[in-house]
Amino acid sequence: MTDIDAGRLWLRLIGREAARAVLDGRPPDGVTLAPGYPSQFSLEVMEMVAGARSGAPGGYGPYFMVRKVDDAVVGEIGADLDGATAQVGYTVVEPSWGQGYATEALRALLAHLLADPRIDRVVAETLVEHAASRRVMEKAGMRLHGRRVGEVDGEQAELVVYQVLADPLRSGDGRVGAGPQPAGGL
């Protein structure tokens, strides 16, 4: 698989050897590690990839977010498929927050996902109070779809769910030129 162009980033599929390198405390071949990388969440992603599976079976990724200017890994992004729905997750290391990397990566992954005829809808969720992550989803074209209570780090938490729908022409509803359709908010 080739890298996905995400503006100032490349989304590069994380293979087992790359994950093992990060877990061993060294940069994978062809990249450097940005300040603050890896985060604890990044290490959990690497353990998953290095373990029983490489990439997401039936899914997309996970991918490294690789900054083009210096080939530095600033985070990860990926999606798992559940039927015709893709659920996206992403993280950027704290020293790289506020620079638009998550938005660029999410926009690129959404375009890639919505080009797949198997996918009708892409969802993502975050804590209600996580305003920065909510802004990322909104800037990438996702719309608030609802709220739910879920478990985060072993605790009950209120989450917001964002989504974007695929082009309705693919499902044959007859609307012309509509493009990706955001869902209505609350």
The quaternary structure here is: single chain
Report the CATH C-level class. Answer: Alpha Beta
Domain module tally = 1
Distance between the termini: 38 Å
**Radius of gyration from the alpha-carbon trace, in angstroms:** 16 Å
Low-confidence stretches: 171-186
Outline: globular
Please work out how many helical segments DSSP would assign.
5
Q: What proportion strand?
A: 35-45%
Task: Quickly give the structural class.
Answer: alpha+beta
The SSE order reads EEHEHEEEHEHEEHE
Give structural notes:
The chain has a single domain, classed as Aminopeptidase. Helix 1 (16-23) packs across helix 2. The radius of gyration is 16 Å and the shape is globular. The chain has helices at residues 16-23, 40-50, 101-114, 131-139, 168-171; strands at 4-6, 9-13, 32-33, 60-67, 72-82, 85-92, 121-127, 143-152, 155-165, 181-182. With 186 residues, the protein is an alpha+beta fold. The protein is built from five helices and ten strands; from the N terminus they run E-E-H-E-H-E-E-E-H-E-H-E-E-H-E. A hairpin with a 2-residue loop joins strand 5 (72-82) and strand 6. The chain is 25% helix and 36% strand.
Explain briefly what this protein structure is:
The protein has 186 residues and is of the alpha+beta class.
Key features?
25% helix, disordered C terminus, 186 residues, alpha+beta, Aminopeptidase, 36% strand, globular, 10 strands, ten-stranded mixed β-sheet
Task: Break the fold down into its secondary structure elements and pairings.
Blueprint: E1 4-6, E2 9-13, H1 16-23, E3 32-33, H2 40-50, E4 60-67, E5 72-82, E6 85-92, H3 101-114, E7 121-127, H4 131-139, E8 143-152, E9 155-165, H5 168-171, E10 181-182
